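USER: I would love a firmer grasp of how sequence relates to backbone shape in proteins. This is the protein in question:
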Amino acid sequence: MLRKLTICLLATAIVATVVGCRKGPRPDRDLASDEPGPPSPMRDVLIEMHEAMLEGRREDHLATITGDEDEMRVVEALYDFYHAGKEFRRHFIDAYGRGQWEEVHYDKRARLYLPPEDTKHYEHAVIEETSDDTAEAIVIRNKLPLELTLTDDGWRIEASSIIPPGTNLKKAAELTRLWTKIVRSQQERIGREGIRAAEIRTELGDQFSDVTRELMDW
């Protein structure tokens, strides 16, 4: 889940940790450090955040993040989008093969990039304590850090550092929910007689663009 509004700019800001506007394959995201970092409670919460997302432990995932009500709505929506995308990917590969999935994965209009299936970036994160109860974690080299805060329940990741500055939180949550609905709807069409992989990829991109444009007109 990492940071990063024209339709492309809005989409990037809203679903920065999961998707983005791209041309061709997403560039490799460089680890912050060549070697794994030392164990720490801050690293533990980063790894737990990602593992809980990968394993479908929604409440555990949300428990690693702290923020106000609007920020947490975005975090919840991003989690749901990821899992809808994960199920879409599984069904799509089963029906059409991994090569066809790569066409969706790297389509700049479909924007169905999914987070890494391991915790390596968090294991290699560079973590610096900035005070007795705050810390920063650089997860991707040359990118802004995630911010962590020590709460009564232990170290937590600040939702505000997951969501790019200036994001309209209500629009972000609503657009991500709409995109999740589109992914689930298109998943139901996968493998049906006469429906090709390219058709689903095109419709996914068209529908994403349509709802994003409509939301910008609020």
The chain has a mean pLDDT of 86.
